[in-house]
TrEMBL record:
Residues 130-280 form the Nudix hydrolase domain. It comes from Papaver nudicaule. It comes from the Eukaryota. Belongs to the IPP isomerase type 1 family. Its EC number is 5.3.3.2. Catalyzes the 1,3-allylic rearrangement of the homoallylic substrate isopentenyl (IPP) to its highly electrophilic allylic isomer, dimethylallyl diphosphate (DMAPP). The keyword Isomerase applies. This is isopentenyl-diphosphate Delta-isomerase. GO terms for molecular function: isopentenyl-diphosphate delta-isomerase activity.
Length: 311
């Protein structure tokens, strides 16, 4: 039991308590709360099960969480059975279980949260219609060339595909749930540009991101994994320093319009792979917006009221 903690869910106290076998003190965990507001003194049978704290992190953000009891136990069971997936890189496995994505409905209203692991399982996407908030950064240098990255071979979804500069998720934490001026999504973009590409925060100030629009799409990666995202499209023009993280990124390059068109032709011929979200943006919006980036009229393209449902 030295590496395993007992997690005891007590419905009458409406909180999860992580009890360490190595210490006598109890530590409150803010990840799950009961949906019941009852203060009845009648006892409900306590359910106890062993689980590793490495796979069930306890956040102390102070945010009230509203996951249902059924999701508490289904999520925990999935974590227990799948954490040992030998095909998953250790870094990606840690992120899959530590990161909590923001669940939204098709109007982008926050409805809960779940692990990155569950949010990318096609079985759960299809059976529970799990939809999570995401962002895609389109970063141009002062010559108006677009930065692309090739995702690392160890990525769980869409390994080795070429895509825009950075694609990830705001997490269920206070700083990335801020709705005003889309600050939560901007904060997440700044965080992940550092994590993935080593771009320091001062090179990409949050107020320099222009949120242009939102798309909603679903795309399988393989038989097990996939995406179902409500994706914020963020544009920025900056001269940045990069130190790509090999756990996240296999390669990077800047391209002009013609080079991107050539890359798309190669993708059509099966010579390279592009991420589905990037291809949707390329096919529907990118080249027109690119013109507006160069002309300094990008603000005219902003439409944050529409959620484009793309296939």
């Amino acid at each position: 039991m030295s590496a395993i903690n007992s997690v005891i869910f007590t419905a009458t106290t409406t909180r999860l308590i992580a009890k360490s076998a190595a210490a006598a003190a109890f530590k409150p965990c803010h990840r799950f709360l009961s949906t019941s507001s009852s203060s009845s003194s009648s006892l409900i049978k306590t359910t106890s099960f062993p689980i590793s704290t490495a796979t069930i992190p306890c956040y102390s953000s102070g945010i009230g969480l509203n996951r249902s009891l059924s999701r508490v136990f289904s999520s925990s069971s999935a974590t227990m059975s799948d954490v040992s997936d030998s095909s998953m890189d250790a870094v990606q496995r840690r992120l899959m279980f530590e990161d909590e994505c923001i669940l939204v409905d098709e109007n982008d209203n926050v409805v809960g949260h779940d692990s990155k692991y569950n949010c990318h399982l096609m079985e759960k996407i299809e059976s529970e219609n799990l939809l999570h908030r995401a962002f895609s950064v389109f970063l141009f240098n002062p010559k108006y060339e677009l930065l692309l990255q090739q995702r690392s071979a160890t990525k769980v979804t869409f390994p080795l595909v070429w895509t825009n500069a950075c694609c990830s998720h705001p997490l269920y934490r206070e700083s990335e749930l801020i709705e005003e001026n889309y600050l939560g999504v901007r904060n997440a973009a700044q965080r992940k540009l550092l994590d993935e590409l080593g771009i320091p925060a001062e090179d990409v100030p949050v107020d320099e991101f222009t949120p242009l629009g939102r798309i909603l799409y679903k795309a399988p990666s393989d038989g097990k994994w996939g995406e179902h995202e409500l994706d914020y499209l963020l544009f920025i023009v900056r001269d940045v320093k990069m130190h790509p993280n090999p756990d996240e990124v296999a390669d990077v390059k800047y391209v002009n319009r013609e080079e991107l068109k050539d890359l798309v032709k190669k993708a059509d011929a099966g010579e390279v792979k592009l991420s589905p979200w990037f291809r949707l943006v390329v096919d529907n919006f990118l080249f027109k917006w690119w013109d507006q980036v160069e002309q300094g009229t990008l603000h005219e393209a902003v439409d944050m009221k529409t959620i484009h449902k793309l296939t």
